[in-house]
Amino acid sequence: MATDRPILLVEDNPDDEALTLRAFSKNKITNQIIVTRDGVDAIEYLFGTGRHAGRDTTIQPAVVFLDLKLPRIDGLEVLRRIRADSRTALLPVVILTTSRELQDIQQAYSLGANSYIRKPVDFERFLTTVGQLGAYWLSLNELVDS
Question: Which of 3.90.400.10, 2.60.40.420, 3.40.50.2300, 3.20.20.70 is the CATH number of 7-139?
């Protein structure tokens, strides 16, 4: 069953953000997409602080698509903070990055990433990959009620 909970996309590259949003649209993923462009903004969104103060934090994303190479706080630190807090510890977090570094993959999984996906360079493969991710995480995966 599809969820109407939002998707959190944490992406600092405007081109990758635009491609991801286009892929969601082309694959008929209609969930609200919340975009944060650095690690601090992502943390503030999730915990309702900073510019997101007052946000209803009982409504958490269905899934977080998290880049690793982010300004201010990198993606691994964002993941560490997500897993360290009981309010967000069970959120599905998919690493969506260009990094092929074995250390990044190992560290992401050791910190509790649910999946690690390298962004395909080819546009059609990117569309397909994002469509498959959306279908799985929004339609097939069972979420913990927030």
Answer: 3.40.50.2300
